[in-house]
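Supplementary Methods. Inverse-folding protocol.

Structures were first reduced to a discrete structure-token string of length 137. This string, shown here, constituted the complete conditioning input.
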């Protein structure tokens, strides 16, 4: 199973993503300035996120089917701070609201068990010497 966010994208098409203008690459930060627009004297927002129907310009997704952030490695801190429900052992009201707004069910703790098992299997396989096969669970 893939990370639940890889088949979601709801938060990226539900909330405004704002940051200080110095967080952009034009001012020493990492967020691509070309993907932002001014929002007040000291803030910028990710393009598309303050529309009446928000959708981040960096989102490549069909909500609920597949999702990827085209700038994941340099995404704003506000995006880094959003956790999927149960990713760290507790519900995330922000995640739950975004999913509900798109007709998706809230994530459950059990949604993470297959993902954890896959990571463990992958880690075990990576630790095996070349030529050895990992047992199939």
């Amino acid at each position: 199973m893939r990370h639940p966010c890889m088949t979601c994208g709801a938060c990226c098409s539900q909330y405004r993503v704002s940051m200080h203008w110095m967080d952009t690459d034009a001012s020493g930060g990492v967020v691509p300035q070309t993907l932002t627009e001014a929002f007040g004297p000291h803030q910028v927002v990710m393009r598309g996120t303050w529309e009446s129907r928000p959708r981040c310009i960096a989102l490549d997704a069909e909500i609920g089917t597949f999702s990827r952030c085209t700038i994941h490695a340099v995404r704003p801190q506000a995006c880094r701070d959003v956790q999927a429900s149960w990713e760290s052992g507790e519900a995330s009201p922000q995640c739950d609201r975004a999913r509900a707004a798109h007709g998706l069910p809230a994530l459950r703790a059990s949604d993470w068990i297959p993902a954890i098992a896959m990571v463990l299997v992958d880690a075990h396989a990576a630790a095996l010497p070349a030529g050895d096969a990992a047992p199939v669970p």
